[in-house]
Amino acid sequence: MGSAVRLGRIFGIEIGIDYSWFLVFLLFTWTFAAVQFPMMVPHQTPATYWSMGVAASVLFFACVLAHELSHSVVSIRSGIPVRRIDLFLFGGMAQIARDADTPGQELRIAAAGPAASFVLGILLVVAADLVRPLAPLAAVLGFIGFLNVVLGGFNLLPGFPLDGGRILRALVWHFNRDRLRATRAAATSGKVVAYLLMLVGVYQIMLGNLIGGIWFILIGWFLVGAADSSYRQLVLERALKGVRVEEVMTGDPVTVDPDVPVELLVDQYFLRYRHGGFPVVDRAGHPLGLVELNAVRQIPRERWPYLTTSQVMEPDAEVDPDTPILQVLERIGQKRLLVVHEGALVGILSSSDLARFLHVHGVLGGVAGS
Ligand SMILES: [Zn+2]
User: pLDDT digit string (tens) for 33-59?
Assistant: First the structure.
């Protein structure tokens, strides 16, 4: 998920907001200003309600961020770096660089978020009580305090990838000493939780609460996918731990000269070798770029004889053969990488190389459907 807007850094962690979050921000502000606060504090002007709505949304946003920061700080203290925190449609997600080393670490990192939400919730409710004469302010603080408690409680649902699912995984892992099986258990439990949430959604809709019901169904649907993909991610990480680019790449790839006309490129390369892309190298073997079938397809056929490969190639993305494969996983999902050592091309790396590697090592059965 590419974050759309960078907010800056806190404790060295980059904070990003996905576009979907702005939608939620508007929806929350509107719900607060038009529905929630008029109910809690009647007889105020629309301007007051909208100010309350915006203030409540900003405060809630800060609380979600505090929840994620709390996971992150405990993680960093355990020696596991955190690259980014992303805020998106369903809340926040700290991009913790790798899994915890021990069940105890995992438990502490997972529990830190809900703990922060509960503490914030209680503090805000107490603060609301202290400013009771200022009814609008008290309503904002009190309601966001209440939402924090709901947020903490929701996150404790025992299904991966929710915090409660991580706690469950840590416990199972502690008792049976097998992290993969613990993850499978937590992911299965996550799916059960997700389907139950969807059922609650259907029930809500039957009761006439359409918006609330749709939210439950959406969150459940998101969690089903997240439970699956976090399990697959773990299987993948296990299989690829310690593996370097050199072991996965296709070595000694077929290369193209930059002066080859595109017509010849199609006939002699794409149709002959059936690869989706070729490295373009000069006579000394230095890589110049990458030409991909998709790029050639966009050019009208009648122009093929008049263009050379160098005119349709793209700048290449290069990687060293010693790089751990886990570091480039995201990048090969998008395009081929040229493997370059001391200025010379030694291989090419694509997602099909990775698929083949996993297949040969008998991993793909465990991650089927990815
Ligand atoms: Zn959390």
Answer: 988 899 888 888 889 999 999 999 999
Q: Is 14 a catalytic residue?
A: no
Spatial distance between the Cα atoms of 99 and 106, rounded to a whole number of angstroms: 8
> How far is residue 266's CA from residue 105's CA, in Å, rounded to a whole number?
54
* pTM, two decimal places: 0.67
- Determine which one of 14, 68, 302, 330 is catalytic: 68
**Which range, of 13-27, 251-265, 288-302, 350-364, averages the lowest pLDDT?**
350-364
CATH of the domain at 279: 3.10.580.10
Return the axis-axis angle of helices 163-176 and 103-130, rounded to nearest 10°: 150
| Number of domains making up the chain | 2
Q: Point out which residues pair with 308 in neighbouring strands.
A: 261
Q: How many angstroms separate the alpha carbon of residue 130 from the centre of ligand 1?
A: 29
Q: Which of 116, 136, 156 is the last residue of a domain?
A: 156
Cα of 330 vs centre of ligand 1, distance in Å, is 23
Q: Domain containing 282: what range? A: 245-367
Residue 173 Cα to ligand 1 middle (Å): 19
Asked which of 134, 156, 178 is the last residue of a domain, the reply is 156
Q: How far is CA 273 from the centre of its chain?
A: 35
Ligand 1 centroid–CA 268 distance in Å is 54
